[in-house]
Specification:
Strand order of the largest sheet: 1-2-3-4
Number of strands: 4
Largest sheet: 4 strands, antiparallel
């Protein structure tokens, strides 16, 4: 799965997105999302976060994402998918920036279970797709 990952991840929030660099940790089989920039929409302003170094390639990738987002029109099945991604992004932004300890205590278990369920479904479906497209082995000969 790590080979399929994008270099940048965009967490949508009202008014724009936070851009993270996706950093796979092969030894631990986990991902780190390193804060890189804030994007303000619709103005398309890009502001580096902290000591993040935004190179020319990063700026090009962010600009390409902004343009693609502006031109995107959901196709069949795209609207529910995009709504789900947006809801998850907004929940992450809320937890990171606005939620109180009381809010997080009340919501954490429910959110974690929902995310675990979604992850399990996505992985099962991906496994099924891979199994369906895998070449069939010849039966053993006697």
């Amino acid at each position: 799965m790590a080979a399929d990952l994008p270099e940048l991840y965009f967490r949508l929030h009202p008014g724009g997105a936070t851009v993270f660099r996706v950093a796979p940790d092969g030894a631990q089989r986990r991902l780190d999302l390193l804060p890189l920039a804030e994007v303000t929409l619709p103005g398309a302003a890009i502001r580096p976060l902290g000591a993040a170094d935004l190179g020319a390639q990063d700026r090009l990738a962010i600009r390409a994402w902004i343009e693609a987002r502006a031109e995107a029109t959901p196709g069949p099945g795209g609207a529910p998918r995009q709504s789900a991604v947006t809801a998850i992004n907004h929940a992450a932004h809320w937890a990171e920036t606005k939620a109180t300890d009381t809010d997080l205590e009340a919501a954490s278990e429910e959110l974690l279970l929902a995310m675990h369920d979604l992850r399990a479904v996505l992985l099962r479906k991906k496994t099924e797709r891979l199994a369906a497209t895998a070449p069939k082995a010849d039966p053993p000969r006697d």
